[in-house]
Amino acid sequence: MRVLGYGGLIPFLGIALGAWVNHPLAPARELAQLNLLYGVAIVSFLGAVHWGLALMISRLAHAELLTGMTAAEFETRSFVWGVTPSLLAWVTSAFAPVDLALSLLAMTLILVWWVDQQLLGRLNGFADYLTLRGHLTVGACIGLLATALAL
What we know:
Strand content: under 5%
Order of helices and strands: HHHHHHH
Number of strands: 0
Number of helices: 7
C-alpha cells in the first residue's frame, strides 16, 4: 500500500518539476494538463474506495456493528459519496482554466481526505490507510499547486 501510494506521487511531483523547468519539448501548459488529468483519475479512484467498502460491508451479517448505522444508511452514504469526488473533479477540470482547475482539484483532494477521515475514521482497521492518505494528499496538493504556479 505504501509503495504504490508514494509511487503515485511521482507523476504529481515530476510533472510539477517539469513545468517549472519548462522543457522546450513539453511546455508548462501541456504538462499542467497532464497533471490535471492525472489528478482527476486519482480523485475518482478515491471515491471508488467507498463503493468497494459499501459492497463488502453492507453484505455482512452485522454491518451496523462495524459502521454505527444500518446497512442501508451505510450503503446510501457510501454510494453517494463514492461518485461525488469524480463529479467534483470532472466539473473542476471541464469548466475552469487549467491553472484554476489545478488549484480547485487540490481543494477537492483536501475535501475528499476530510470526508474520509469522518467516514472511515469510525471503522476499525483504517488508521494506516488514513495516515497514508494524509501524506499522499499533502504531496498531491504540493504537485498540483506547484504546477499551477509554474504557469
